[in-house]
Amino acid sequence: MNASYAYIYDDFLADPRFQDALATLETRLASLGLSGHVGRLTLFRSAKELVEGFVAQGAKTIVAVGNDNTVNKLMWFLPDLPVVLGYLPLAEPSGMARLLNIPLGLEACSALSARLIETLDMGKINDRYFLTEAVFENTRAQLNVENSYKLSLASGGSIMIRNLGTMDRYNFQSDARDGLLEAVLIPQQKEDFGARFWRRMQKEPEHTQITFKQGEIVSDQPVEAHADRFSVSGFKFQLSVEPRKLKVITGRIMSLMLPKQQTEGEIKNPA
Amino acid sequence: MPIFGSSPSDNHEVSLPTPPTFTASKKTPATIIAKGVKLEGEFKSQGDVQIEGEVHGTIQTEGLLTLGNEAFLKAGVTASDAIIAGKLEGNINIKHKLEIKSTAKIQGDITCESITVESGAVLQGSVKSGVVVATPKADEKTSQPVPSPATK
User: Fold this and answer.
1) Class of domain A124-244
2) Which of B16, B49, B56, B139 is the best substitution to test chain A (most A C-beta atoms within 10 A)?
3) Which of A206, B29, B64, B69 could serve as B103's disulfide partner, Cβ 3.0–4.6 Å?
4) CB-based contact B12 A209, cutoff 8 Å
5) How confident is the model at residue A168, as a pLDDT?
């Protein structure tokens, strides 16, 4: 057993439908020399205490086994711990896995085994971390940026605060290594099809896009924020970025064609 | 050592290039203020800025500023280069080239190094071209234009 790895199984994996897949997964991990501690999330068990217990026993890699909700259960405290996050997605939703280019199912073991680590920025909404994006839909809230200026949607619309990217729509990636958050404001469409088609022909942008480090969303009406796989309601939200906060094992290096002259990102094969 | 089956204790920390994004355009400005959005306050940027909406305050950028033909600015503008096709009420300080389109309506004083004005543009205010304007960095205060010995 490799004590530096700890696997956190989500509670839905206790369902008999997943038993065969888990057995195959554990055999594969053992063959790769990646077997480690195993902990199971349950209703009455604190995920934070479970993970901190494994860290005290020497675990340096915490692997979420399940789906995006499993990662979400760990994300609110994991960036503050001296560990690397791994992810083995076995079920939907797995939008986070797609953004990190981790395959669904058994093939995710390959990404885990390669152990290619990226240090990513984390977004923060009030006191809670988010990795992918925070979305405020159907709102007239305004975005105040760095105490310098404010943006508002004249007829309402959606505000998306992106760090890594959009999980479910369009598989839109942002750069989670630039120390910035990206705000995208999409006005509610009141134009008819013809007017929108004409604007697209003229290549006029349909959404507003800015980058920032710190800001706040303020609204007269209660607004709901959906970040990663959690939701929170309120009138005011503080937004900020914590640069290079979370170390994650990703599969992204496998999908990028690196030019030969590029020095960053080369995998140096030891002799 | 091969990538797969590497020792679990090995850490291959890599700095990757920027991942590809959904937007295909290679010249997408860093900042876009689209139609239907209003910006109020002091905006500073280091990259290109494209405005199709409404701005009240000041705009300062080290890159190219583009105002669409339906944009409305009630703002002082400082940029390296600019293309103006919309309505602007405020003074304009451009370090290099200013291009004013036929649909532009400008009410304010213009200072730039070179200027192109299309037929149909409406200008109300003074125009000084052939002037070297020192464009401040995004975190510095705006400086005054320095007249150059070159004539228009």
Assistant:
1) mainly beta
2) B16
3) B69
4) no
5) 67
Sequence ranges of chain A with CATH classification 3.40.50.10330: 5-116+250-255
**Residues B61 and B78: beta-carbon distance below 8 Å:** yes
Task: Give the Cβ contact number of residue B93 at 10 Å.
Answer: 25
Mean of pLDDT values over A117-142: 93
- Top pLDDT among B134 and A88 is at A88
Residue A180 CA to residue A174 CA, distance in Å, equals 10
Please name the CATH architecture into which domain A5-116+250-255 falls.
Answer: 3-Layer(aba) Sandwich (3.40)
Residue B139 has pLDDT above 90, yes or no: no
Judging contacts by C-beta atoms under 8 Å, the chain B residues touching residue A178 are: 18
Cα-Cα-Cα-Cα torsion B126, B132, B133, B136, nearest 10 degrees, comes to 180
Our measurement of the distance from residue A193's CA atom to the centroid of its chain's CA atoms, rounded to an integer in Å, reads 34
Domain with CATH 2.60.200.40 in chain A: 124-244
Quick check: ipTM above 0.85? no
Give the global pTM. 0.80
Q: Are A71 and A87 in contact (CB under 8 A)?
A: yes
Tokens for A27, please give them.
Answer: 């055999």
DSSP-assigned states of every residue in B97-145: EEEE-TT-EEES-EE-SEEEE-TT-EEES-EE-S-B--PPPTTSPPPPP
**Shortest alpha-carbon distance between residue B16 and chain A (Å):** 5
Mutate to test the interface with B, among A83, A142, A149, A200 (most CBs of B within 10 A): A149
